[in-house]
């Protein structure tokens, strides 16, 4: 409650002063995070976002700040290699540049949404955002990825290996920016894919999933680098929500952030 009140007051003060940008707020470590636009903060803070990495600036070596207010900062899986920071995004090399976070509070998660902007010209199977159980890398899993056939994909697997997958139709490996959103609903066994705010459809397993605990979140691959599927290209504005976003909310996020890509 105190953190929420702090965030609310900071936002109100920013608006009252006519500010277009605010910094990361509500952190217990008082870290001075780089500034981000208020229109992007709104959808992150007030719509159940549990992780938000806007990649607005390069943090200290190996640190990738979470702006959601939960302080779920990421780190690099391979200390010898880290993604290269560009002008508001990170460039992943397709080999071992993986940003990892152990635990983001999804211990009893049944519904979630993953969102990210990507830019790539590589036709290969590559993970964008991945949630897994570190003790059972094969299950459960939820992730969004690029396929070797150049489309986006959202995938969900439960603890009993039940799984469902949905492929898109829009080509996303044309070296242009694309906004990828995947919704995983274990309670109904359905997944939903959006690309650039376009509804790419729903797939259903036909029954409920048991997703259980997601204790590893990875950007640009999977936390266990031996699993492969490392991303080769640019990734920006990664978000994870603990509920299913509506099509209107997906469109709003795309609309609020598309001019930056």
Assign the CATH architecture.
Sandwich
Proportion of helical residues: 10-25%
CATH class descriptor name: Mainly Beta
Low-confidence stretches: 1-22
Described by the principal axes of the CA atoms, the overall outline is: globular
Mean pLDDT: 78
- Biggest β-sheet: count, sense, barrel? 8 strands, antiparallel
**How do the helices and strands follow one another from N- to C-terminus?**
HEEHEEEEEEEEEEEEEEEH
Q: TL;DR?
A:
It is built from three helices and 17 strands.
Could you characterize the architecture of this molecule?
The protein is mostly beta strands. The protein has one domain (2-260): Sandwich (Jelly Rolls), CATH 2.60.120.200. It contains three helices and 17 strands. The chain has helices at residues 2-16, 38-45, 247-257; strands at 21-22, 36-37, 49-53, 75-76, 84-85, 90-93, 99-102, 111-119, 126-133, 136-146, 152-157, 163-167, 178-185, 190-195, 198-204, 216-219, 232-241. The strands form three sheets. Strands 3, 5, 6, 8, 13, 14, 15 and 17 form an eight-stranded antiparallel sheet that branches. A hairpin with a 2-residue loop joins strand 9 (126-133) and strand 10. It is globular. The N and C termini lie far apart (34 Å).
């Amino acid at each position: 409650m105190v953190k929420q009140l702090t965030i609310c007051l900071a936002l109100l003060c920013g608006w009252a002063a006519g500010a277009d940008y605010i910094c990361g707020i509500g952190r217990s470590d008082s870290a001075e995070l780089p500034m981000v636009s208020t229109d992007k903060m709104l959808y992150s803070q007030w719509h159940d976002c549990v992780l938000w990495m806007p990649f607005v600036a390069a943090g200290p070596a190996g640190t990738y700040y979470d702006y959601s207010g939960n302080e779920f900062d990421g780190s690099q899986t391979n200390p010898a290699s880290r993604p290269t920071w560009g002008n508001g995004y990170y460039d992943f090399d397709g080999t071992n540049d993986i940003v990892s976070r152990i635990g983001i509070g999804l211990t009893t998660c049944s519904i979630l949404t993953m969102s990210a902007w990507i830019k790539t010209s590589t036709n290969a199977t590559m993970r964008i955002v991945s949630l897994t159980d570190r003790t059972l890398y094969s299950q459960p899993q939820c992730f969004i990825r690029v396929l070797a056939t150049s489309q986006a994909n959202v995938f969900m697997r439960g603890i009993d290996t039940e799984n469902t997958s949905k492929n898109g139709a829009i080509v996303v490996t044309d070296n242009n920016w694309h906004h990828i959103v995947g919704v995983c609903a274990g309670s109904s066994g359905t997944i939903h894919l959006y690309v650039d705010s376009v509804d790419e459809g729903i797939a259903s397993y036909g029954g409920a999933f048991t997703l259980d605990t997601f204790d590893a979140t990875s950007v640009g691959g999977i936390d266990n680098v031996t699993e492969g599927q490392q991303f080769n290209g640019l990734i920006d504005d990664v978000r994870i929500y603990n509920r299913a976003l509506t099509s209107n909310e997906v469109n709003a996020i795309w609309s609020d952030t598309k001019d930056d890509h």
